[in-house]
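Ticket 4471: requesting a sanity check on a complex prediction with flavin mononucleotide. Repro inputs:
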Amino acid sequence: MKALIVYFSQTGNTERVAAAIGRGLEAAGVACRTVALADARPEMMAEAELVGIGTPVFYYKEPTVVRDWMARLPAARGKAAFTFITHGGNPVNTLRRMQKQLGRRGYTVVKSFTALGYDSYPMYFKSFREWGRPEADELRLAAEFGERLSGEVGRFREDRNFSRPRYQFVGGAYFFRSMLCQGGMMKRIFPRLEADEKLCTRCGTCRKNCPTGAITMGPYPRIDDKCMWCYLCERICPVQAFRTDWEPLRKKLKI
Ligand SMILES: Cc1cc2nc3c(=O)[nH]c(=O)nc-3n(C[C@H](O)[C@H](O)[C@H](O)COP(=O)(O)O)c2cc1C
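Returned structure tokens:
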């Protein structure tokens, strides 16, 4: 069997889980290729008999860059898929949402894996939450998950009564927050990203690395509505030219 793992990762947590699952698949005799989402081409999907998609949780759901990518997947008919996520403690309905989105493209999720990942969201910059995660034990579990996948795919193909994963719907406050954190509301809630022109050297690091291509240099970085509020530009700017003021939001949320 040929498997393809596609992952999106900004601080390496999901990438490490992807690599561990890949090792597990290989150990079980499955030929596995692991690629970053930015390098995943549609024809790779067509060649694979099992497709895995991994993502961090951003704003209580899959990041827009992953959602848009799943929406563009070549249509399949009942192709076996698996999903995996890393998160800082509140994944809400991410796996459920991914299952639905993949289902629309004809992919059947046979199994999922979840791990905690240290959370570098800038609002918590003083103390990275879940520091050190995913831990060695979680990566071992990820590898074991990979090893079991081929058996799961076999059952999915052969057993008419194969039961697909059911993800319980998470409602309540975090669901409400997940609904708030999208589209035009993001602009109202979260601090605006603006480069300080006195500090910015116009090196273009932010533009080159922006996952949604939301940054143009004119001549200083300008961020348009494609922004998914991941604050990667702020984190990677070599001269820390992006200044965001989190104090008002911290006060509101009592953090
Ligand atoms: C912009 C942003 C938003 C996040 N939102 C959430 C969230 O809503 N719920 C959660 O549990 N973790 C959240 N996190 C934490 C990430 O899901 C977690 O750190 C993840 O492991 C990062 O994966 P990566 O290292 O592969 O990028 C957020 C992190 C960032 C940077």
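Notes from triage: The domain at 191-253 is CATH 3.30.70.20 (Alpha-Beta Plaits). Leaving this open until the requester confirms.
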